[in-house]
Design a protein that fits this description.
heterodimer; A: 95 residues; alpha+beta; two-stranded antiparallel ribbon; 3 helices; 25% strand; globular; B: 333 residues; nine-stranded mixed beta sheet; 10 strands
Chain lengths: 95, 333
């Protein structure tokens, strides 16, 4: 799981507006507003970084354990996936 | 590790206090292949922004915070560079909506639209049959083409809706339009307000439905309570803007009063100009006639239609007043 590489789904729209990250799903047309940690993760969904790598950056930025960060990231990505905002690519090898 | 990780969350998007132009309606052309008798557009004779200029404007809008962009016309499919424009918008991460009459959308165009992944495509349909629709569009065969476009887009998983202005000619068959939308996997959006042309010509409003019908079709309810004198009256010029084919920046497509032109000034300069501030200064305190109106709670207050009808955004539009009366009448039974 932590080696999965998430990416923003094609057609996802987003903008940082007045310090608030707003994303729009091309699948559901739903409009979501992400809080600070949500925006932190969204900005790192580039099809290159694994869930583990993103969680490591989050853990460092917020000074929490990597396990806790990974649990949060996975749960959040699950919500985004349900909205059609995230697609996954299995990482070829652990980074 | 000593920190506490805030739950990663999705929040409700709230109303915006700042003047970020999050919604922009971009008229790519005024050219059209239909001749709908109620159309508000007065074709601008100046050259349209070219591909390079449109791309530059999109870059500026992305920088300014625009997220939702609606491309409309005229008929957008008449722009030879439409897909180049749409691809650029997609690459700048806009949420894209398209308004079209659909008559020029074939399988290949539908495939290309699907690759853009618009959040919604609105197709103008004025009746459930060719006879009724084409009496409005004045174009034989346009009904079948528009319906086919809706089907092609739906088949490709694109959310679609039927845009239907309600007029005397079609108000009695609106149920059929709703049924057609259902058959096409779309939804129907009805607008009971026929607006004047952008030069103030009221002739399209002769097709407006009568007061009794209007009371039946409007959402019969009070829209708001008392308004503070400092209350902003609409999103125009605040979190919404419109851009004309020749690059004029307007507060709203229904408020054709340019506050600047993108061939002469960058968007950021126009959006922070005294002309833009003057739009934002039009609060309730400036509407002497409306302030004490007994129908105010039922009124949608459209400064743009005020301007089109009277040449003055602070003087009430007769068609907006009529809608308010209908809403009030419906609510009071």
């Amino acid at each position: 799981m932590s080696h999965d590489v998430p990416n923003r789904a094609d057609g996802s729209a987003w903008r940082m507006v007045d310090g608030e990250m707003i994303v729009v799903s091309a699948t559901t047309a739903n409009i979501l507003s992400l809080n600070g940690t949500g925006a932190f993760v969204w900005e790192r969904l580039d099809g290159e970084k694994s869930i583990g790598a993103i969680a490591a950056e989050l853990a460092e930025a917020y000074e929490v354990s990597r396990d806790e960060a990974e649990e949060h990231v996975s749960e959040f990505l699950g919500s985004l996936h349900d909205e059609g905002l995230v697609k996954y690519e299995r990482e070829a090898s652990a980074r | 590790m000593s920190g506490t990780l805030p739950r990663i969350a999705v929040l409700d998007t709230g109303a915006r206090e700042s003047n970020t132009p999050i919604n922009v309606l971009f008229e790519l052309t005024h050219r059209c292949n239909l001749r709908c008798f109620h159309c508000y557009v007065i074709a601008d004779k100046r050259p349209e922004l070219d591909t390079h200029e449109v791309r530059g404007v999109l870059d500026q809008l992305a920088e300014a915070g625009t997220l939702f962009i609606t491309f409309t016309g005229g008929e957008i499919m008449l722009r030879q560079d439409l897909f180049e424009v749409l691809e650029h918008a997609r690459d700048r991460h806009f949420a894209i909506r398209l308004f079209t009459n659909g008559t020029l959308i074939d399988e290949e165009a539908a495939d290309r639209i699907a690759r853009i992944k618009p959040v919604d495509v609105g197709v103008s349909v004025y009746g459930p049959t060719a006879e009724i629709h084409e009496a409005v569009t004045k174009a034989r065969g346009s009904f079948d083409k528009s319906v086919r476009a809706l089907q092609l887009l739906h088949d490709r998983g694109i959310m679609t809706h039927l845009k239907c202005v309600l007029m005397e000619e079609n108000v009695n068959v609106r149920g059929g339009v709703g049924d057609l939308a259902d058959e096409l996997g779309a939804y129907a959006q009805f607008d009971p307000q026929v607006t004047p042309r952008n030069d103030g010509d009221l002739s399209p409003t002769s097709h407006s439905i009568d007061d009794t019908e209007l009371s039946n079709v409007v959402h019969a309810s009070q829209l708001r309570g008392a308004l503070d004198l400092d209350t902003a009256l609409c999103a125009a010029g605040r979190d919404s803007a419109s851009i004309s084919p020749a690059g004029d920046v307007l507060p709203c497509v229904q408020w054709p009063m340019p506050i600047g032109n993108l061939r002469q000034q960058p968007f950021s300069e126009i959006w922070s100009s005294p002309e833009a501030s003057a739009i934002r200064d039009l609060t309730m305190s400036k509407l002497d006639t409306c302030r004490d109106c007994p129908d105010l709670g039922f009124c949608s207050l459209c400064l743009g239609l005020n301007y089109v009808e009277n040449g003055d955004a602070t003087r009430p539009s007769s068609s907006v007043c009529r809608m308010a009366r209908a809403r009030k009448k419906g609510a009071e039974g």
